[in-house]
Amino acid sequence: MEFMLATAVGVFTAAGVYLVLRQRSFPVIVGMTLLSYAVNVFLFATGRLVLNRPPILDATAAGYTDPLPQALVLTAIVISFGMTALIVMLAVSAYLAARTDRVDMTGESGEDA
Question: pTM for the whole thing?
Answer without folding.
Answer: 0.75
